[in-house]
Fold this sequence. Notes:
This protein is mainly alpha-helical.
Amino acid sequence: MLLTLTSHVVWSADYNKGWEAYESGDYATALREFKPLANNGDAASQHKLGLMYLKGYGVSQDYKTALKWFRLAVKQDYAGAQNSLGYMYHDGFGVSQDYKTALKWYRLSAKQGYLNAQSNLGVMYYRGFGVSQDYKTSFKWFTLAAEQGNAQNQNTVGYMYEKGIGVSQDYKTAVKWYTLAAEQGNAQHQYTVGTMYYEGVGVSKNYRTALKWYTLAAEQGNADAQTMLGFMHDKGYGVSQDYKTALKWYTLAAEQGKDNAQNNLGIFYENGYGVSQNYKTALKWYTLAAEQGNAGSQNSLGSMYYEGLGVSQNYRTALKWYTLAAEQGEPSAQYNLGINYHLGNGVSQDYKTAVKWYTLAAEQGKENAQNNLGALYENGYGVSQNYKTALKWYTLAAEQGEPSAQNNIGTLYENGYGVSQNYKTALKWYTLAANQGDPNGIENVNLIKGILEPKFAGNLDKEEGHFFANMICEKAENSPGPISNELISLLPALGIGSSTGDSINKSFNTNICNCVQKRTRLRISPERIMDVNRRYKINPKDDDLVNDSEALFFATLSVTCALF
């Protein structure tokens, strides 16, 4: 909001000649015409002379002489001079700054309908200069000035309606006033109307109309409008997607120092959108935007240094830019910073700090951070192990389609970590991951199907039988064995020829299921093994097992065979 200080009144032929000279910059002629009129008591000429001395037009700048002519004119209640005298007191030109006295003169002028005084009075009440801040009174004076067709005041009234300042919020009325101002050709006002149509505030969202207003503003050099015009061509909003045209508008805005345009140019050059891919040029634009504090560019610049694109790889420099962006709340940078601390790239490995940054990103919905945070909770890295919290973060990521998270949920359900063991639910999540090409998901779908649909392989030869037995038993120690020949003779029930019995290691451990867990990535409870034993009748006597060690061996062996 600017204080205004102009006069539009024309009184006589001589005054007209002086006014025309003044407007054209011929101040010598203006002075020659105004001075005799002013000396003869013409208030309008006195006011114009005051303005010439105030601004130093055709004369040496002289505030005291300006004050002299303004005071002579106000004695005749000349509204323009009242406004100018208020301006002198407002800014302390030739007098001590005095907001209350400025307010007095603005008010006298405004009550006469003087547009600029009404506008200035609106500023005084809006800012609380010389009077208690009063948005309603401010709105009243701005509206009076706007109703006289002043574009700046029309824009201000639109803003007050949009924000609900001094008046009930009313987006439709805001658009009305913004449009009146924009139609007078001011680029900033045109940009504002474009934004209302782009966002659908006070009007139905209309990209084509937004494009029209942005174009009008952009062609006048408005950098904000140029940026938005580039973005609309970039995304194909209201116009066919056109990277080259987007590049043109981004470049014009970027050259004016607009950081968002510089960031978008960096993206274009990094990815080769509408231009040949050029990492060095991308780095240039990212750097310009990042140095202005643009968080997106700071993150992208960090990634350029992290990957060594257009610059030598440097984890420490990457960490610097990631940190600057992350501290502004940029979720991708928070995630990237978490990775650096997680892996120890450019900094000492620190799981707790990784958890901190992953959490900040995850809380903003960053799916990769949610998945990684889940993994840290699952494994107890940097935080107490907590399967339920792991499941929470995995689920949030998986619902966004993150395949690694979908696979990880499958693992929790398959093994009963933090949830009841449920192979069907595990299969559901593994399948979702597999359908996206996740290699772990694909592998796990096959494994879990082997559990849900067990099929014995028939008679296995000596080599295969020996493999399965040793796979289960190679880490078993302190066994109470041996396994009796009677039980070895039951091997055919598993599809293993009895001739392989004398090749099987006869030392087994009652904790044999732990060995299977490590070998097959399954956590099989003793209860589950007993159930399998009964289901497949490994021991014909059902519950009358010889001993737990032997029951575990045969039941677990059956599960293992089913997996292969």
